[in-house]
Amino acid sequence: MAGYFDDIAAITYNPDGDGLAYRHYNPDEMIMGKRMEDHLRFAVCYWHNFVWEGNDPFGGQTFQRPWFPADTMDLARMKADAAFDMFRILGVPYYCFHDHDIRPEGDSLAESHKRLSTMGDVLEQKMADGGPKLLWGTANMFSNRRYMSGASTNPDPDVFAYCASTVRACMDLTHRLNGENYVLWGGREGYETLLNTDLSRELEQMGRFLSMVVDYKHKIGFKGAILIEPKPQEPTKHQYDYDVATVYGFLKRFGLEDEVKVNIEQGHAILAGHSFEHEIAMANALGIFGSIDMNRNDYQSGWDTDQFPNNVPEVALAYYEILRGGGLKTGGTNFDAKLRRQSLDAEDLIAAHVGAMDVCARGLRAAAAMLESDSLEAKRRDRYAGWTRAEAQAYLAEGATLDAIADQAEAKALNPQPVSGRQEQLETLVNRFV
Hints:
This protein has 2 domains: about 30-375, Alpha-Beta Barrel (TIM Barrel); about 390-430, no CATH class. The longest helix is centred in the C-terminal third of the chain and has 28 residues, at about 345-375. About 45% of the residues lie in helices and about 10% in strands. α3 (about 75-90) runs parallel beside α5, α5 runs parallel beside α6 and α11 (about 310-325) crosses α12. It has 16 helices and 12 strands. α6 links the parallel β5 and β6 (about 180-185). It is globular. By secondary structure, the chain is α/β, with parallel strands linked by helices. The strands form 3 sheets. An 8-stranded parallel beta barrel has the order 3-4-5-6-8-10-11-12, surrounded by 5 helices. It has a two-stranded antiparallel sheet with strand order 1-2. The chain starts with about 30 loop residues before the first strand and ends with a helix. It is found in: Cytoplasm. InterPro entries: Xyl_isomerase-like_sf, Xylose_isom_bac, Xylose_isomerase. Homotetramer. Belongs to the xylose isomerase family. Keywords: Carbohydrate metabolism, Cytoplasm, Isomerase, Magnesium, Metal-binding, Xylose metabolism.
């Protein structure tokens, strides 16, 4: 049988070319002493591209892929063939998957694990044959009806145990495939109503589960990062991992702030009432930045639309905060994005990623130029220059007291005057680069 992407040639960097080509993404271009590919660390997700059938809350399947419904091992292998063909065409260095993406669920937990291991053999061979590396693996603990009341937070301890087995199997495979991170997205770790919810109990269960995941990471010698992906709502009304700050508080409570980092998604940041760059900056400030899912929401819609990024100024500000924080280390830029239901063709899957990768390349270039110019940073330093004085630093030193500082203010008859924040000037400055 002919491959799904047989009519599409490998995409190359050709800024003046026609048709499908990278016009801005040049993997070997040097930016701030590093190759563009090594800055961006692009990854393609398995789920939206090869699992999603084009359905939405008001209509069913619109996509017709030859491996659907992928409910047999033969169809799962066909899906893997198509996925790695697409990875090759795009030339991406990484990919990501859920366990449920790569194998059909079995009639028993043991059968599901056996199928996962078998498909792991398939992926391992494809990676050895020149396929991309694994950025991260994760377990789907939200689609099946058994998770309708949560995964680790479920009121049924048997579901908690089922999750433990599922995560162990997926962590083992991620480790075997040399994955660089392992992600936990608590899709249904939250609640719909307090009328039937023991909030304290569920948070304790979630914290204990995460602690055991970290312990298991060390037991098997997995060197990658454990990541939590914050999201404020949808599918549950109240998610426990609302945003970066909430996740940090949760990690601190259970003593995991040095063990777990965050995978931040642009769409989730917007749903939480933040900007993408805010969440990245907050994670860097708290020391828990790990990786990003790059997509966008439709600002006229109130839900997570997972569209491909197309706004260079927004992307530039996100990469600016990433570069300020030292760049992506084990993390990467994963396209957790999906086609619109009306984009039916194989070429649409390729074109969407090509366009998104070009947007990210433009954003990275702009971010690096801003940082290297020192324009924003100089103005930021100037705004806080007063805190470089020894007297001001003493305010925050160990042993400083409210009384002593108040006495100094009164002795000097301080009467500080407001200084302009120059927001509009700074916004104009950014626009010079994007």
